């Protein structure tokens, strides 16, 4: 859900009961072409910017560096 929200690339729903999922699926099926294409574009752009090897490597390096503590100060 966090990625979908960050990318503005999909339909979110707050609760987990089957009715909530069914309503989200209905909303997805009823999207007009322009809105659907915009959600797909947003998702692809988020993936391009956040899931390429360079971005992933920087994120992992930051996580590991923070976990180990900054010992160079």
Structure report:
By secondary structure, the protein is mainly α. Helix content is 71%, strand content 0%. The chain is built from 4 helices and no strands. It has helices spanning 2-7, 18-29, 33-50, 53-68. The longest helix is centred in the middle third of the chain and has 18 residues, at 33-50. The protein starts with a helix and ends in a 5-residue tail after the last helix.
Short description:
The protein is mostly helical and 73 residues long. It is 71% helix and 0% strand.
Distance between the ends: 37 Å
Question: Would you tell me the structural class of the helices and strands?
Answer: mainly alpha
Query: Can you tell me the residue ranges where pLDDT is under 50 for at least 5 consecutive residues?
Result: none
Dominant shape: elongated
Estimate the strand proportion. Answer: under 5%
């Amino acid at each position: 859900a966090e990625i979908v929200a960050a990318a503005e690339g999909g339909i979110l729903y707050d609760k987990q009961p089957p009715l909530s999922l069914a309503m989200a699926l209905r909303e997805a099926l009823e999207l007009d072409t322009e809105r659907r294409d915009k959600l797909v574009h947003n998702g692809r752009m988020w993936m391009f910017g956040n899931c390429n090897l360079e971005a992933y490597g920087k994120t992992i390096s930051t996580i590991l560096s923070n976990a180990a503590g900054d010992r160079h100060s």
